[in-house]
Amino acid sequence: MNANQFHFIIIDDSIFDSRIAEKVIQNVDAGAVVTIFHDATKAFDFLKELPHMSDMQKRVLFVDIQMPIMNGFEFVESFESLPDEVKAGYILYFITSSMNENDIRRGTSYPSVRKFLNKPLTVDMLSGIITGLRDEAQSGLQ
């Protein structure tokens, strides 16, 4: 994977919402790699097995809050228990239809969570994320 290619991981039990997110990602960044999980426990196991990446090659996680078995908050709590060098390879966003103030406050209290996004993922939201990540990578090179 080169520095300009992103790997997006969508963790959402809704097949419909995850397909929308995948299509938006493919429309905005045709070279992006997209992996979808409908079960957060399987996604967490997958993350633990992936090799570490350099700062230029971060993976972007979109995590739904309301999921069975392991919800988004439980996923992030497990994620935060990973070693710092593993967590450093990911940028995590909550993406959910719940705009409950308590969920937002709780979600943004985790150090690993960059932002709380409202479903569905849109071209404008993703374009802003990609631009920000590329700007961060550029400023890190200077």
Q: What form results from the Cα inertia axes?
A: globular
Query: How large a portion of the residues is in β-strands, by DSSP E?
Result: 15-25%
CATH-defined architecture: 3-Layer(aba) Sandwich
Average pLDDT figure: 88
Name the structural class: alpha/beta
* Integer-rounded radius of gyration: 14 Å
Lateral arrangement of strands in the main beta sheet: 2-1-3-4-5
- What is the CATH superfamily? Response regulator
Under CATH, the topology can be stated as Rossmann fold
What is the string of SSEs from the N terminus onward? EHEHEHHEHEH
Distance from N terminus to C terminus (CA atoms, Å) equals 21 Å
Low-confidence segments? none
The count of helical stretches stands at 6
Estimate percent helicity. 40-55%
Largest sheet: 5 strands, parallel
The number of domains is 1
What do these coordinates show?
- This protein has 142 residues and is α/β, with parallel strands linked by helices.
- The chain has one domain: Response regulator (Rossmann fold, 3-Layer(aba) Sandwich).
- It has a five-stranded parallel beta sheet, with helices on both faces.
- The chain is globular and about 35 Å long.
- The mean pLDDT is 88.
SSE topology:
Blueprint: E1 7-11, H1 15-28, E2 33-37, H2 40-49, E3 59-63, H3 72-79, H4 84-87, E4 90-96, H5 101-108, E5 113-118, H6 123-141
Parallel strand pairs: 1-2, 1-3, 3-4, 4-5
Summed up, what is this model?
The protein is α/β, with parallel strands linked by helices and 142 residues long. It is 44% helix and 20% strand. It starts with 6 loop residues before the first strand and ends with a helix.
